[in-house]
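Title: Prediction job returns without error message
Component: structure pipeline
Severity: low
Priority: P3
Assignee: unassigned

Description:
Job completed but the reporter wants confirmation the result is attached to the right record. Sequence as submitted:
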Amino acid sequence: MWKTLIRTPLSTFTRKTLTQSIYLQLLEQTIPQLQNQPLYTFNTNQRPRVSKNPQFHSIRSSELTGNSYGFCSSVPVNGTSCCWNCNAQKPLLICQSCGSVQPVDHSVDYFMIFGLERKFDIEDGSLEGMYKSWQKKLHPDLVHTKSKEEREYAADQSARVIDAYSTLRKPLSRAIYLMRLEGVEVDEEQTVSEPELLGEIMEIREAVEEATDSQALKKIQSQMEEKLKHWSNCFANAFGSKSFDEAIKSIQRMTYYHRVYEEIVRKL
């Protein structure tokens, strides 16, 4: 008997002797539970049933037993959470496998939503195109036949797409958001203690107040656009080289010129 057992391949021996309790122990050791909620149940005649928690990311149980059943563990990784309906990986806003609208996953940043590289310089045309595409897919008329829960997902996702578009389409807000993704918070209200810059801003504001017609305002507006373009380029270079102090300096100047620009827009 022992000779027969020794000749038996180890993989066969493992499959035959791995009991359900050991299998569950392996799962518990490998996949941490979230808030003490069970990730799976086990039925003698069925494969493990998986929780449909949308925040879980997919891991193959074949890593443990050689089976092909896929399930989700407790923490999403780089926006690779699973579809709550079919368990497919990388669903983003809408699952490509089953078409189900997903709950908001904050590990998916604004650049990922639009399929853009995480950098300052982006093509406005591609951003606007993707924005319109998402809004069409998430429109209430297209999800009205779905469940109440999924309609709520669509509303949340639509609001997030709007926020993402508003943030990325403007250079200043895009720069601040990029810094936040790098873990650097920028205080927009922080006063710059540079007399030369502050004096320049005061002169510009006085010129805006004293402008008597739209032509004069548009001339100042054009000057602000040039200033914003210059400091946007400075930010792009600083951010690209990870010179965050210089990047913050650029953002502070962009903030001053942007405020003047907004004042002009309100007066026009």
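Comment from assignee: result matches the submitted record. Residues 1-24, 30-71, 73-79 have pLDDT under 50 and may be disordered.
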